[in-house]
Structure formats: C-alpha cells, structure tokens
Amino acid sequence: MTSHPLPASATAATAPAPAPVAAPPARRRPRLALCFTGGKDSTLVLHLLLHKPNLLASALGIRHARDSDHGDDRLHLPPAVLLPPNHQSTNLAPLYDFEFVALVTFHPKSPRFLAHPLGGIAAQASALHLPLRRVEVIPDPDFSAGYANAICSLDLDVLVTGDMMDVCSAFMRRAAKAAGVPLWCPLWGVDRAVAWDLVLDAMKMVPVVTCVHLPSFAKAWGDEEAAVEKRAREVVGKPVDRDALNKWLVPAAANDGGGVDLCGEMGEFHSMVVDGALFHERVELPGRAELDPQGTYIYWAGPLTRDPLAPVEKDEDGEKETKIKTESKAATGVTKSNVAQPSS
Which ranges are annotated Polar residues under compositional bias (predicted)? Predict the structure, then answer.
C-alpha cells in the first residue's frame, strides 16, 4: 500500500502553535528621596535632580562608574538611577530614571530647630508642590539605630543628601549602610565658588540667612562680642545675593579674615531658600533676629518657627493664634511618621 504524505498546509494546520514569548518584566523605577532641611545645599541638590540634571555631569563631574583609585563612592551616581545602556546615546547627557518619593526631614521628638524650623520647611514643600515626609527618630536602643530604622521605613533604593563634607564622623553614611540603602552625596567635595554659582546663577535660588554662629565670625567681625552680635543681626533674615556674598561672606572665608567655610559647612551659618527655579511661589519668612539663651547664635525667629503639626497654642484671651497664610498652606501634604527600633 502506497502512503501519501499530507499536504504542507495540512501539516502546518496540525503542528502545535509556538509558545508565546513572555514579555520582559517591567523595570522597577528606583525610589529616591532627598534629606531636606530647606537650606541652600539640600535645595540645590533638589534642583539638580529635578530641574537641571545635566549639570550633575557637566558642572560637578559626577562619574557613573566607581573609580578604583577613589576609596569613597559617595561622588558616584548609583547605577540604579541610570537608564539601561540601550537607552543611552553617546551624543547626549546620561538619562536619569527614578521615582522621586518625597522630601524627607528626620527629627527627634519635640524638635525645635533654630536654623531650619519645621514650619519653614513645610512652607517650602508647599511652594515646591512636593510631598514632605517628617520622620521622627526614636532612639531605641540608641539614636544611631533609630536613625537607621527610620531610613528603612521609607522603602528607598537611594537616599540623597546635600552634604559637601564629613562633619559628624560619617553618621549619615553609617546609618544608611546599617539600613541597607545607598547614600548619594552629589555635592561631596564641591568647590565652594562653583556651588554658589549654581545656587545664584543656574538655579536662581534665594537663600535667606536664618542663623549665625557668633564665635565662628569673631575673627572676621571683631573680638568684641557686641560688635560680632551687631554684625550678625545685620545679616540674619537677609538674602545672600552676589553683593552680600562679596561684601561679608567672601572676606570672612579668606584665611586672613577668619577662615570660615564659604558655604558654612562647619555650621558657621545656615540658610533657608525662599525662591528658585522649582518654586511655584515665593516663601515669606516673617520674623526678627534674636539671640539664643546661651548667647552663641543669632537666629531668625517668627511664626514659621512653630511646628505646623503641633497643637495650636492659645493667647492670653483664650483665643487660638492666627496662622499666617504661608504656614496654613504649608501644612497641606505634610505627613508624619513615628519609627521605633524593634526590641530584640
């Protein structure tokens, strides 16, 4: 009996269909948050991330692979926030792909910050139209462990700070390492003049001096305490523009003038930014210059010094204080977390 092969069309019809090719899993965008005090450093990093990320490479020289000759990788961009290589172009600046989670402010219980009051930080977040997460650090069993646990609670892939140098024995780096979260400091080691160029020119930021450490300026402003205090009262509450920078800060930073850090990285002075390229409205900081009880600082005291999430105090007539407009707007979008280290 002669067999007859089936037609090709019949063979194709009965052959099993090829298994569908599974789509590659969607790439999870890395979650990134910024430690935010409202000062010029953290606000500058925010502008670099969300406004002009090309300056991370062109102005700061951020490298995207660790230099084996450099023992510290804080200068380098974590690979997680770069798009995959096939999305890169050799003719373009690197592309950054991350989910910006929030501005994050860590604080102890019942905080009272002279230089960066929480009310002012909340007003800034409101003007930036960005979420602000306040995370209380509960020292259990100690502050370092509590800080690490606070970082863990944020569920991040990268934590970013505006640190330019180490002033607290690498506290933040140790806390982030204990939390298993990479810490990125884009401004680490930056030339101070370049930093001010970015603040004032590239980002059009307006930093207002909120606190001056009097002993730091004793050499530049005179040995008499009254003279130093008088000069500090003249600059606190005022913006730092080019004129102010050249008039009082650059001379004080000169070696023969006092040797303070031009960006105040040793705590010589502090600022809060009230306007800039990313701000949708200017933040008003009403107040007055006051001397702290220890006679060490002149700081800017005003309505925003009060914690916007704290109970509203009553005046002598039993009426609630009237909050100024910027403060009431600032409370919107602020979330608070309490984080405790589990007991072992």
Answer: 334-344
